[in-house]
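User: Neurotransmitter-gated ion-channel ligand-binding domain-containing protein, Dreissena polymorpha:
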Amino acid sequence: MCQPVFTCATLDETEKLYEHISKGYDKRLLPIVNQSEVIVVTVQVSVVSINKFDEISGDLGVTVLFHMTWRDERLT
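Assistant: Predicted structure for Neurotransmitter-gated ion-channel ligand-binding domain-containing protein:
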């Protein structure tokens, strides 16, 4: 039987790791090594609530959650 081992980083260790990973990172550059390649971006839009619906004027007011994800090769 295998017992999983869990380790939890301290806040200080987490901050050091983040600083190490993001050192020299320039957010203005595309998140791929070969800048001529395409980036696959996944977009998810979820309707959270309908705030206004007026059949006569055709007005519709909604609150949405907009979520985008992509893989940043420079961080992996």
